[in-house]
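Contributing new complexes? Match this layout with 6-O-phosphono-beta-D-fructofuranose.
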Amino acid sequence: MKKIAILTSGGDAPGMNAAIRAVVRTALKNDIEVIGINMGYEGLINGDFHPMDRRAVSDIIQKGGTILKTARCPEFKDPVVREKAAQVLRIYGIEGLIVIGGDGSFMGAKGLSDLGIKTIGLPGTIDNDLAYTDYTIGFDTAQNTITDAINKLRDTSSSHQRVSVVEVMGRNCGDLALYAGLAGGATTILVPEKKMTKEEAIREVMEGRKMKKNHNLVVVAEGVGGARELAQDIEELTGIEARATVLGHIQRGGVPTAFDRILAARMGHRAVELLMEGKSARVVGIKANKIIDMDIYEALAMERTFDEELYKIAMDMS
Ligand code: F6P
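Output block (do not edit by hand):
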């Protein structure tokens, strides 16, 4: 393997830069040239390429976002577009491609591997919604950002004796809500994986008030949604003042935690090794603190299992 390329795709995640750095430094150490592709698959189709040397990844390990920029690229689902992208890679003599992103980005990588381009996927998304890996790059930072926001909301809601309803990201996956809810001492946590009615959530709040809780914190995953309506209903039905906060994209930015940087370094390093071993259509993950790799088709077909044990712990704590 003489020349590889790297791109970031889908929603950015803290730690993506640390992963880019790991890929570039590992490749260069092994005399492999690295091409950075800007703006994900969009940049790939348009040939938005630039060579990356050691200095191209200096001083980025601590930076959130992605220096390669990113985009969602629905056109990449079209086989004609994918063929064009594969052709561009062939023209530039690029033998392997490392894609950092979520499941949508992996679908694109899978499509390219079917066309003979060696591809490796690294899980980069704050959602932690990929079944084959215990953690995705960015999840740890995002849960810490949310926990920090919850700490701040606690100050004001306990001063006013209010209920604070916090909506966090996670379209189909409640992990951010669950982990940050547990870390932040939530009264109740609403996630898409567990059906909880509005009435049940309100009952939890009322129970909390009976137990002389100064304030109540309700964490709602984006996949459940409706934080503002829930706050209104709580206020109407219980008479306790309630406020909603939708954290939004603040959760996606910020300095990556040490955990995310180390995860990114381990995964990025392994991705290059896999390409050097001639592997393709693999995704890198972590299971029981061991870096693993898996067939991309298998990984995408896996169904996520919700952490019932952690959910029970969180609920028992409330
Ligand atoms: O995929 C990560 C994610 O942050 C989701 O949690 C969220 O639903 C989505 O991206 C938001 O995407 P966008 O930035 O394109 O609005």
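Reviewers usually confirm one structural detail per submission. For this one: The chain is about 45% helix and 20% strand.
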